Amino acid sequence: MEQGLQTERVAILPIPTFQMLSFFLTVETLRVANRIAGKELYEWVVVSLDGGPVTASNGMSVAAQFPISNCPPASTAFVTAGYDIDTGRTKPVLDWVRRMHRHGSRLVGLDAGPFSLAEAGLLDGRRATLHWESLEAFREAYPDVHVTDEVFELSGDVATSPAGMATIDLILGLIAERHGTDLAEQVAVFLIHDRIRKGGDIQRSLSQRVLSMREPGVGRAIRMMEENLETPVSIGKIAKQAGMSERKLQRLFAIYFNQSPLDYYRTLRLERARQLVCQTNIPLVEISVSCGFESQSWFSRAYRQRYDISPSDHRQQYRRDFKSLSNRAPVPITTTGWDMGGYNFGS
């Protein structure tokens, strides 16, 4: 592949017990982008606390080329962490995160990686997401961060993702942002990834799997909501189906989602409506009916309240913004203040 001036370097810092799947999906998605583009759009380097190998949660290790104290400049810097959250909040890691950010890198937190970004002060007042296992602990530790349960969040010069298969969606979003949606879609096809989820799609595992294990009744309630989007059923009937009182259902939803069952149900319907508005040509009146709204005016009011934009304007904006991504110039790598050391990191 030809080496171009616009090649972007990606630095990856795995914290011990990191998720191997998200690590490989990050590298492989970028590698496939290089292959399809026919040139080296991306190169990557792995760094660690001491320059030695890092062991993942599955017991396998990844070799690092550099210690973080000698990390080369990069346009994007990833922190991927798993169970060992405390190591990700130590001074060496936080110093590296702040240094990379100060020198122009976009910081990306995967899985529990957002703990490092939040501890470094990069997420205050921003939207962020992370793996469902860590959501509640994260909310408690960082009340100034707007925590969501979406598949990824792009917030300016920082990004977060719960990892797992959502890693592909995040990387495809970054590829689309830099090099156009056509390339991102070709990469998705190559990886047999049938639908590119956008920021805004929720982690289905949170509603369907996790609560089914922790609170089977809540899981049953959510499944009933999801199965009845077009013709909503009453919260009382949902509570009965879930095998609990309506009052208990209200309490559990407040604990897990910080909202009422009715608000959660409406959010599910609006999230489905948003997907149809942005990704299909279905008439808005049909979308309103298919998502359980009695009139288009009611649907439009609820949609605007949720997304701060009308359905028709959102559809136009989505198509306009999606098209404009392919016209964006790649972001240059900032090297000011760095010693390149003569290294060339290939794929």
TrEMBL record:
CDD domains: GATase1_AraC_ArgR_like. It holds the Pfam family HTH_18. PROSITE patterns: HTH_ARAC_FAMILY_1 (PS00041), HTH_ARAC_FAMILY_2 (PS01124). Residues 219-317 form the HTH araC/xylS-type domain. GO terms for molecular function: DNA-binding transcription factor activity; sequence-specific DNA binding. This is AraC family transcriptional regulator with amidase-like domain. The keyword Transcription regulation applies. Keywords: DNA-binding, Transcription, Transcription regulation. It comes from Aestuariispira insulae. SMART domains: HTH_ARAC.
